[in-house]
Structures are given as structure tokens and as C-alpha cells.
Give the backbone structure.
Amino acid sequence: MKRRLWALVAVIALLIAACGGDEGTDTTDTTEGGAATTEAAGATTTEAAGATTTAAGGAEGDCVVGMSWNNYNEERWAKHDEPAIMAALEAGGCEYIQSDAGSSEEQQITDVENLIAQGANVVIILAQNTQAILPAVQGATDQGIPVIAYDRLIEDANTFYVSFDNVLVGQLMAEVIFDLVPTGNYIVLKGNGSDANSDFLREGIGAVIDAAVEAGDITIVAEDYTDNWDPGLAQTQVDQWLTQANDDVQAIVSENDGMATGAAAALDARGLLGTVALSGQDADVAALNRVALGTQAVSVWKDARALGTAAGEAAVQLAGGATLADVEGTGEFVYTNKETQAETVLTSILLTPIPITQDNLNEVVDAEWIAVEDLCAGGATAGPCGG
Amino acid sequence: MSVVEASPTHPETLGPSPRRSVGSFLRDNEIDTRMVGMIVVLLVIWVGFHFLSGGTFITPRNLWNLSVQTSSIAIMASGMVLVIVSRNIDLSVGSMVGTVGMVMAMLQVEWLPALMGRGNSWIWVATLAVGLALGAAIGALQGSIIAYIGVPSFIVTLGGLLVWRGFAWLTASGRTIAPMDASFQLLGGGARGSLGDTGSWILGGIACVGIVALLVMGRRRRRKFGFRLRPTWLDVVLGFLGCAVVLAAVWVMNSYYLPENLARAYAEANAIPWPEGGLQVPYGIAYPVLILLGVTLVMAFVANRLRFGRYVFSIGGNPEAANLAGIKTKRTIVKTFMVMGILVAVSAAVSIARLNAAVSGLGTLNELYVIAAAVIGGTSLAGGIGTIPGAILGALVMQSLQSGMVLIGVGAPVQDVALGVVLVTAVAIDTIYRRRAAR
Amino acid sequence: MTTTPPGGRTPLVEMRDMNVSFGGVHAVEDVSIDLNAGEILGLVGGNGAGKSTLVKTLAGAQKADSGEIYIDGKLATIATPRDAKAYGIETIYQTLALADNQDAPSNMFLGRELMTRWGTLDDSAMEDATRKIMGRLNPKFQNFKTPVSSLSGGQRQSVAIARAVHFNARILIMDEPTAALGPAETEQVRQLMRQLKSEGIGIIMISHDIHDVFDLADRISVMLQGRLVGTVNRGDVTMDEVLAMIIIGKLPEDVTTTELEQLHG
């Protein structure tokens, strides 16, 4: 019996070590109980019993920013977004705490509550599901804590929306593809069904190709969502769609690079890699390499560092007591819910994405987004790869 | 011979039994009725989708794709059978695929080239070896905690599901690692990852000879001991059917030809002049499918002909009886998890080779499909019952459904509903069938 | 009351001062019994008397806290079921210890499978051997390929007995051998036991059926709440006296007529 108990303890310890092992996190033991005071209307001030402690190495004062990731399990968050956010926070004298919801909507609500309980004055949320997160946002707003919606829109006028213009992303990628393939058969590979971004991107794509579709120049032979943006699933889908279309496909508009990897593998199996126009988003290493090699036409680059910096700076200002409208560089973004047609006016900062094609590869290299060796692996000769 | 004892459900008479039906006939002659049922279901699904897709499902191309798409889950399902039969479960296989897959990707893309030099032709071998060892080690670790410390397998592997998913991320800091080593890629199928027609026919021929040999040896052995034989005509029919199915499958694989541009590249590479009507270069059996077939044979052998397999089933049937019979049950349990770990590594290799990349989310939710495949294939979650070929068929049924639905344009959410319904229906039918047979 | 082994030979099995405790509860406390070749020892007692636990130490399925076991006069170490089998001790458990999902031949050879020379299971040889064994013991038995779960209680019992008998057992432990059987099958088992006894095998028989014990046993050992009340020759006692040993714990020479009458309430 005793041995079993120790074994269980060991397993639990292992679990805690694994789950808490994200880089650069500052999950600290801060104030007991309540959040700090804010000046937002209707806020309740709570006094922490006893002294408030600050983390070792963190900034002093009461600026704590909580970051709620929906699923840390993608390349860009750790590599680009998080370091930028943290740098901006540190420059502004704020402390950074975070949590990872592991793709679970319920878990994310708990995470947001925990971050507030740990003393966050501002919460940045990368929402797993734009609808499901609303209770957590409501809870935060009630406590007078500003919420920043990071990269993914939250349908709540009290949130501060920081993103790239995702409709524009869709538009930019479609423009490159449409330029290469003005007539022919298209496959549209969409992302996760419950992610509003999938539909924003589709909107932007539609803005470019809808006219041609109407006129009959372009036929969309297949279009569907892909659970969790999963590359393997995308590969199987493209396998099947190519079979059904008997390979008569001239373009695949993939909403992100991960799925583009899957699509590329499916095309490669049929010897179509390089002859079918392929798009993507995120400018990840494998995708940029494909652009250099000429097997992917475009990857829309959202310099996540700029996004992280903007969010971090906004968070600093909000924590300092600014209202949403006071934050620098904001505009208004009107979001229309496609089902209810309800309109939400969001205070937002929308950054401009850059489509990366073979013509402007040096931009990603110069910005130190990717190393030249990684870009040019496999004998690429375009752009900065020489030749 | 001794007096015959009549038993309502399992007559073992030499002459015609009182209640003649196809089912009892098959059972009398040691043919697995459940397996036959599953094959019928599979054919129904295939024919159904063939019509719904306007004639695209039963084509060499789609069937070839289907075989490759089924491989990674089916490979793991064969190992899951032993785990479930011994009254355990492994919920961590998906996350293990993530960790082992990521490690193998890092090995062949970063670590080994630094050690052995870029493009070293042994890189893929070393990668595979380390991957298999890692899978076995993880399996042994989980198995030991389950067998020797006594923590239920549900808990240990649930913990594993979290731990190994975390490790998958940590291995490469969440990056996507691509592309794979040129030789390693072949494991995933694709244009160059197939056996070609000559090789496939040879393999088909060997398989056919093997089936006939097994039937003949079986008859000879039973005659030697004076046991009841299957009617000769039945054995002949079985041999015939077996060969026919094998050769038909090979023929389908060989009817799938390289698309034109790849055929041209092939012709150039092999200095073949391009003929007038085009060159038909058959794919043949894909390497991942070959691996799957090998795994199936080995696992079926282990389950039926080796002491280890017998012990796994005994533990599943009655763990106390196994202990009292002197069987080293704990060691056997550890071995089942080690075998599962090795198969996870094989499956991970096939997966990353096919995608030609490793993402940190590799293998997510695989455990559910693997368990579903085993269960649809006849493995009982109560333990003690299950077959390897059944699990392979179960995986094939599920993948046929999923790929078929994508083919006919059924949306993703509906696909999930359909798969869930099929899973529950299959087990419900199984439960009712077993209950009736037990009466 | 002491007993004399017939002919004064060394007992086949001698268990001295056996003790087994489970977390403070003495399941078996300072129990000594012995068994001679060619005799049936009836081990009786109420629920929780410790009979099963005692024989399990002999069968290797339970570790004794203290005590010694002598086989043929020599000290024996029995730590696992395999050890017991090596000494020629075979056990038929109350639950039969059969693997329900496996057929009769597999159960017969469970843990002791016959192998081909290539290291694989020789199922045909095992089936053949099983047919021969069952042919001697229970000629009506025919279901060699079906899982034993589909057999009747009596058939399952015959498989368990066949398993115990086949491997040259010299000492047979039978825990409630006829509890789940009908009259015809019970008679069959009784015949078998007499036959085995005549072959020189020593049998320890645990039973709650006093009639069975009186019919078959040569000597009777009675246990009560973990202790040995005493061992008597069957021919020297009446059923009531044995009942008194079981229920009250008094030896025949100590029990009064009133108490004997009270047993029948």
C-alpha cells in the first residue's frame, strides 16, 4: 500500500514537471486572494490580506499581465509571439504570467480565472473558441480587468482586439494564387471550424475569387474545415480530393502553413508539387523553404513579433489605467456575426501582413525571422539563396 | 471413438449436426464467423461508397491510398489487442507517437547529420534503431509502473498521454521539423516508396504458397493425431479464396500507375526511351503497407504460437489462474507494453515519413482510433478476447469510412458523428452476439 | 489426541507450527498436520477457520509467516506454485483456477505448455494428450476446442482434476471438490479419489459436507478460528463428535452428552 502511494506521488510529480515546463514562464506566488485595484467602472477593490509579494527577478509595483494561451503546441507562439510580448512587458515594467489551456475551452475559462486570482491586472487571451470564452471575459470585465483579444477575435465590445487583419491575410494569399491561376479548379483548405479566423480568411479569399467563381472561370472542386488545423488530416483530405478530381486541380488555397505541409506531401505523391499553386500563412521555416524552392507560391507573413509587441505595449498602457480608447494606435473594427448579423464595435489594433513570395524573400531574412541556411535548404536558388 | 456428448451450442460431431446453419457450419470447421462478418461489412461499405462517389472508391488509386492511410493506426492496433486482452489499456499511444516521432525527426534532420555527416546513407537506419529503442523503453517504463507498483493502467497511461505530449513539444520547442531524410521518406509510401510490380507479384506468390502450405500442414498434423479434419472441399475452397484475395490485392496495387510527369522522371532516371502511348509504371505495394503486413504476421504469430501470447490471453481470462499456474504475470504485462511501445515507434516512423515532416501535435487523438479499431475488430474491453487480424480489419473499416466520407464531400463534423455511431454499433452487435452464443 | 500413521512410516507431508497473519488477524495459528501416502485427510471447519489459507501455503499460493513443511521427511521450500508442483503437489482450487477464455488443452497445460522443437506452442500434441487423459477420466467429454466457459460445472471440474492428476501428483489438495456438482458427478469424483488413494497418492480434502468426509476420509483434522482443534481417525469417532469439534471446539473425550444433543438445536 505504501509503495503504491509513493508511486502515485512520483507520477504526479512527473506530470507537474512536464506541464509546468514551458520556457520563460514566470508562474509565481504573488498576492493572496484578490486582484489589484483598477479604475474601470464598477470595479471592486479587494485588499490582499497581509503583504503582497512580488516574484524574484520580476518588476515591482502592481503591474501583472496574464497571458492565456489556447494551445502552446505550435511553433510560432514560443518562437515569436511570447518573446515579443515579454520584452514589451519588461520594458514597461510589468510582470508576465501565463497558462496553457491545451485546446480546451473549459480549461481556458479556468485559466483566465486563475490568472486573475494570481494578481493579473490585464489579461491577454488567445481564444480557443470565440464564443466559449465570453463568460471568462465577462468575469474579467466585471472585476475591472481589461481583456486583450490576441490574434483571435472575441465578440465582446469590452475587449481590445489586437490582430493582423485576417480578412486581409486571406485576400493577400488569394491574390497571389489568382494571379498565377486566373482560371481553373481550386481546392480551399480551411482551418479549424470553431476558429473565427478560418472564416475571416475565407472572407478575404472570397473577396478575390468570388467574381471569377460566379463567372465560371474558377471552380472550387473541394472545400472543407480541418479539425485542429491538423497537417496529417489535411494530407488525407487532399489525397481524397485529388482522387475525386482525378488530379485536375490547378490551385490549393491553404489557410495556414501547417496544412500546406500536408497538402504538399499529398501533391508530391502525385508528382504535382510545384505545378499546383499552393498558399499558406505564418511563414514557418518549412513553408518559406518551399517558397524558396518554388513549391509553394506564397506564405503570408504576420510578423508575430510585431503583434506581440503591440499587445504587450497595449497591456502596459491598460495596466497603467488607460481606457481602451486611450491606447496608442487604435482604430475601430466592426465585426458582423455571420449567423446573427449582430454587430460588435471593437477597439483594435490591426497590423498589416506581408505576403512572402519568391520575389521578396530577403525581407524575412533581413528581419532575422529565418536563417539563410534554413531558407535555402535543399538546394534552393531563389532570392537570397544566390544562383 | 468414445460416446458423443451433445451440446447445444458447440456440436463437434463427425456427421451432420442437428441444427444446420451457415454459422454453426463455419464454427464447426474452425472458421471465425466474426471475421467473416467483418469482411462482409467492409465489402458493403466499399460498394456503398463506390456508388455514392460516382465510381471513384473501388479504383486502384483510391484503394492504394486507403492502404497507406490505414497503416499507421493498424500497426498500433495490433499491439493494442494484446494490451486490452490482458485487461489493461494504453491511452498514451498518441502522445508517444508525438515524442518518438519528434525524436526521430530531430535525429535525422539535426542530430545525426552533425554526428555522422550530412547525407550519410546510414542515418535512416540509426534513426529507426533509436526510435524503436525509445518506444520500447517508454513502454517498459509504463508497463513496470503498472505491473510492479500496481497503479492501474488507465491512470499510468493517462499520465503518459500528458507527459509524452509535453515531451513532444519540448524536443523541438514546438517547431515543425522538415523534410525527412531521403531514404527514411520511403517508409511513408509515395512515388518512390513502393515495391513495384515485380516485387509485388513475387510477394503475392509467396503469400499464396504460404496459405496453401499452412492448410496442408494443418491437415497433416490433424491426421497424424487422428483428429477430425475439415472436409477436403472446404480446405480447397479456403485455399482458393485465400490465394484469390491475395493475388487480387496485388493486382490492384499493380494497377495503380505513376502519374505522367513522375513516369517521365522515372523513365529518364532509368534510361528508358519514352514509348508512344506513354509508360505505365505500377506503384505496387507501398512500403508502409508492407510494414503493416509484416507487423500483422509477426503479431499474429506471437499471439497464437508463442508462449508469451498464450500467457497474455490466460492473464486476460483469469489472472489468478495464471498466477497459480506459475505464469510470471508481471513480467508478461511489462512485455505487452514494451511491444506496444515498439509498434508505436514503427507507426511514428511511417507517419512522419508520409507527412515528410514532424509537428509537435503528431499523433494527437491516435489512441482513440487505435482502441476503436481493436474493439471494432472484436477485442473485448473486459479482457481475454481479441484477434490481431480483427484489429487490422477494424482499422481498415474505420479508415474506409473516413476516407470515403471525405471522398463524397461529407463535412468534418458529420464524419466525427458517423465514426462514433459506427463504433458504438459495432460493439453493441458484438455484445449481443456474444450473449446469445453463451446461452 | 494423537494419531498413528499406518505402519509408522514417515509422513508424506508434514506441516509443523504453521502461522499466517493478515494485518494482525491470525488466519492460521500454530497449526500442525500431516498426511500419509495412500490416505485421504479430511480438513474441516467452519467459515474463517483457516483451512484454505493453510493448504495454500502448501500449494505455494500463500507465504507462511512461520512454520516448516516436510516432504518425505525432508525440509521443503515452497515459495511459489511452481515450487509446489516441483514437489509433486497439485491443487484443485474451489474456483477451479481455469482460464475461461481458453480451451481444455490450454488449461491442462497452463504454465507447462508443450513446445515444438522450434520453440512454438505444440497445440496438436497438447490436444492429443488431453484427449487421452480425459478419455480415461471422463470418456463422455468431447469439447476440446471450445472455451471452458461454455462447459458445465462437472466438465470444468473434470478438466481441473485431470490437470492435477496428469502431472504425476503425489500430493493432491482438493478444496471443496464436490460443492458444485450434481449427485452423479459427485459419485464420479468420489470414485476417482478412491482410485487415486489406492495408487498411493495422498489427498488433503477440504469439505464442509460432513457426509462426504465420513465417506472418503481416513483421518480428519478440525480447525476452528485459525487453530487446530485436533486430528482424529475417522473410524474412532461419530459424526456428532466431529461436529462438536467443528462448532464448539471440544475433543471427543472432553465433550458432554448434553452438548452433543444441543448441536442439533
Summary: Chain B touches chain A through 55 residues (CB under 8 Å). Confidence is low (pLDDT under 50) at residues 1-17 of chain B. Residues 173 and 360 of chain B are 8 Å apart (CA to CA).
